[in-house]
Each structure stands twice: as structure tokens, then as C-alpha cells.
Amino acid sequence: MGLNNPVPASLGLQALFGGTFDPIHYGHLRPVEMLAKTTGLAQVILLPNHVPPHRPQPEASAQQRVAMVELAIQNNPLFSLDTRELARETPSYTLDTLRELRHQLGHQQPLAFIIGQDSLLSINTWYQWEELLQNCHLLVCARPGYATRFAQPEMQQWLETHQTRDPAQLSVQPHGLIFLADTPLINISATEIRNRLHAGDSCADLLPPAVLRYIRQHSLYQD
């Protein structure tokens, strides 16, 4: 499983988008494509997550999850793939990956990390979360059913201090901003897809055809 390195730093605003991708589906891809149009993203680097032992393991193997991502983004120049987290033997923290990329891309390259509203509202539970904005911007996609404000006043103040409503600023400075994106609310989950596949129901409207063919060819998510 090789490492697909991000494109050179001269090509504009880049963003990381991590996930288990078990399997990758339109709920991952379409909001990010809309986000790219809104913010001027030149490249979205998909980052399949290494799942730690204390969490439920994906049904598909790491190699299968990578293969499905490759099929989902083929012929789409917006996306690239980075498998560095899958190569690690130790727990994989977002901050470690961002530091690696920051070192690789240089201190002046605009770099963002894409998360959902649910992740933003729990970000103060992340490993060394206070240092995230020293390495990247945060691009936040709306999620169905989640609050739009922090319950803790100090966290709401942190958000308002760093929030920008001007997406052009994301390409001007290398890190430090939070942008709340008005992305489409696509209520699709990988859990729902796996359950439908286990039940023999159609998922043709939920994930790219090439991914669905791969799932069928390899008998994934079947009882």
C-alpha cells in the first residue's frame, strides 16, 4: 500500500478530509465538492483513518477501503489520496498528521482540515486540540440534527474569535481560521449503507457505481 503524496504546494488551498470510508459514499463526496466551490479549494486530500483497537473495526480491510476510495475519485482531479495513517503502528492523531503535512508543504502553504458540525462541537476532546489552528484552518460542514453553537461559553468564544465569513481569507493566510460552510445536508451514513447491503437492498443512489461494483465483486457487507 503506497503513500500517495499531496500535490505540490503551489496549487492553492488544500484540505485534508479524514474518515473510515467503510465504504466511501456520496455523503462524503458531494458536500466536499460543494465546499470546494465555496472556498476555492484546489485539492482535497482523502485520508483513510487507522482505527484503534478499542473502537469497532471496519468491516472492510484497510486495503479494500483504499481501493474503494481510489475508485470513487478516479477521473476527479479535485481529490487525491494519502494513506500515511494506515501505515502507522501507533495511535494516529489528527495533529500528528497535520504537523507532518505542514512540514512537508512549508509554513506558508494554506492548509485546511474538513470536519462535520458534530466533530466541531466535540473538538475540545481531541488530542492537543488547542494546537490544531496553529497548523491549519478548519472547514466545517453542516450535519443534520446537530446544534450550531457550543454549549460551553468559552468554546463559543473560541469559535467566534477564529471564525471568518469570507472564504477568500482561507487562501490568504496559511492557518488559524474557522469557516462554517453552508454545504448540503446529505443524511447518508456508512452504517446505513452497510445495513442495506446486508439486507440485500439497493444502494445505487448512495455511492458511486464503481464502488458498488467493487463491493459486489468482493462480497463485502454481506451476511
Automatic annotation (TrEMBL):
Q: Which Gene3D superfamilies match?
A: HUPs
Query: Does Transferase count among this protein's keywords?
Result: yes
* InterPro entries, alphabetized: Cyt_trans-like, NadD/NMNAT, Rossmann-like_a/b/a_fold
In its UniProt record, a GO molecular function of this protein is:
ATP binding
Q: Which Pfam families match?
A: CTP_transf_like (PF01467)
Cell division as a keyword of this entry, yes or no, is no
- The residues that cross the membrane are none
| Keywords from the UniProt entry | ATP-binding, NAD, Nucleotide-binding, Nucleotidyltransferase, Pyridine nucleotide biosynthesis, Transferase
Q: What is its EC number?
A: 2.7.7.18
Biological processes per GO annotation: NAD+ biosynthetic process
**So what does this thing catalyse?**
nicotinate beta-D-ribonucleotide + ATP + H(+) = deamido-NAD(+) + diphosphate
Q: Where is the Cytidyltransferase-like domain?
A: 16-196
User: Which NCBIfam families does the record match to this protein?
Assistant: cyt_tran_rel, nicotinate (nicotinamide) nucleotide adenylyltransferase, PRK00071.1-1, PRK00071.1-3
Please report the name of this protein according to its UniProt entry: Probable nicotinate-nucleotide adenylyltransferase
What is the taxonomic lineage of the source species? Bacteria, Pseudomonadati, Pseudomonadota, Gammaproteobacteria, Enterobacterales
